[in-house]
Write a structure and sequence with these properties.
Blueprint lengths: L6 H7 L6 E8 L2 H12 L9 H18 L4 E7 L4 H9 L5 E6 L4 H4 L11 H14 L5 E7 L7 H10 L4 E5 L10 H10 L3 E5 L5 H9 L4 E3 L17
Helix pairs in contact: 1-3, 6-7, 7-8
């Protein structure tokens, strides 16, 4: 959740049973930083961080989490129009466990520059983008790709297969169904049956029942966003 999910925010949620937390999304190049400023003008939350301060900011947020919870893995959700800024962050933020490529955001300012879900329309370009990052991150770091499901004119399963072929460790799927207040569990089942990638299911997880439904549909892990926006949950996943 851009503009919200930083180290201090994640510290509020870890006690509910999370072993991985994601900070960001962060804009990492000139085009995405500029797009972020335009989004802010519309009144939406964004992290407005200059290019020269980005690495030190992410380092600070990771340290904030690791100092208190050294065993919790930290992922950073990163937006860029080219792989190089993401690789640069990987190389310089040594304690960052997971590099997450943002192919998810649907804000027009980002989509129009080929970022966020705009990356899903060209499978060859998506493959090459992910592959280059996979090949260049630190040896111990993992690569995740977060996508939005059911984007018009693209096939989510083909996208999942492309990301798996590119070598990503995790596929993080916002299984949204446009206009529906529940997630597309049938799509999660299909992705799980047609790929072997570690599948993280997201969307409409609001209680232990919806957590169980996501796992029963074939997800290897789950993530929670909007239900945690207050920094509190009304359920605990520690014993799952």
């Amino acid at each position: 959740m851009a503009g919200i999910t930083d180290g201090s925010f994640t510290l509020k949620l870890i006690p509910y049973g999370f072993d991985v937390v994601t900070i960001g999304g962060y804009n990492t190049d000139a085009l995405t930083i500029s797009a972020g400023k335009e989004i802010l003008k519309r009144g939406r939350n964004e992290f407005d961080i200059s290019k020269e301060n980005l690495i030190s900011t992410i380092e600070h947020e990771v340290k904030l989490i690791k100092d208190k919870y050294p065993k919790v893995k930290v992922s950073a959700n990163l937006r860029s129009t080219t792989p190089e800024p993401i690789i640069d962050i990987s190389k310089n933020v040594k304690e960052l466990d997971i590099i997450e490529i943002n192919c998810h955001c649907r804000q027009a300012e980002l989509v129009n520059i080929g970022c966020g879900q705009g990356m899903l329309s060209d499978l060859r370009k998506l493959h090459d983008f992910v592959f280059k990052i996979v090949e260049n991150v630190q040896d111990e770091q993992k690569v995740s790709v977060k996508i939005r499901a059911n984007v018009p004119t693209v096939d989510t399963v083909d996208i999942a297969k492309t990301i798996e072929k590119a070598g990503a460790d995790y596929l993080h799927v916002d299984a949204m169904m446009p206009g529906k207040p529940y997630s597309d569990l049938n799509l999660i089942k299909k992705i799980a049956s047609e790929t072997n990638i570690f599948l993280i299911g997201n969307n409409s997880i609001v209680d232990l029942e919806s957590v169980k439904s996501m796992f029963d549909s074939g997800a290897s892990g789950i993530s929670i966003g909007r239900a945690a926006i207050t920094g509190k949950l009304n359920f605990d996943i520690s014993n799952l």
